[in-house]
Amino acid sequence: MAAMTFVQIIEYETTRAAEMDQLMDEWLTATEGKRTASHGMLMHDRDKPAHYVNIVEFPSYEQAMRNSELPETQQISGRMQELCTGEPTYTNLEVLRDERW
Questions:
Q1: Which residues pair with 43 in a beta bridge?
Q2: Domain of 86: which CATH number?
Q3: Is residue 87 situated within a structural domain?
Q4: Beta strands of 32-74 (E only): which ranges?
Q5: Whether 88 contacts 14, CB under 8 Å
Q6: Distance (Å, rounded) from C-alpha 76 to C-alpha 17?
Q7: Distance (Å) of CA 44 to CA 35, 38, 55, 64
Q8: pLDDT tens digits, residue range 82-101?
Q9: What domain of life does the native source organism fall in (predicted)?
Q10: Per the domain annotation, does 100 fall within a domain?
């Protein structure tokens, strides 16, 4: 069976969005040439101003786990949690269908 695309959804609340955005830029720089993430989207909830959703796409579950184990990812993740007003939640999803309309 061929590897399927894998998506991780990270939901969190913060009042420090600018600092969170800087952390993402730091991670992108620190993991250049190492990261296995192939696509990312950050979304802001219009109805809940402190609620954010980050969707990150990987070629496979195994690649996502490799990315999570990078020291740079571990460090940034710890700093990200300090900026949150609660625990972030992570949802790990295998993509069954991917269609664009």
A1: 53
A2: 3.30.70.100
A3: yes
A4: 39-44, 51-58
A5: no
A6: 15
A7: 24, 21, 11, 23
A8: 999 999 999 999 999 888 89
A9: Bacteria
A10: no
Contact (CB, 8 A) for 12 and 84: yes
Q: How many domains does the chain have?
A: 1
Per residue in 49-73, pLDDT (tens digit) is: 999 999 999 999 999 999 999 999 9
Tell me the β-bridge partners of 58.
Answer: 6
HSE, CB side, 13 Å, CA atoms: give it for residue 69: 6
| Structural domain span for residue 38 | 6-94
Quick check: is 1 in a domain?
no
In a domain, 101, yes or no: no
Residue 79, SS3?
helix
pLDDT score for 4:
75
Judged against a pLDDT cut of 60, whether residue 2 lies above it is answered with: no
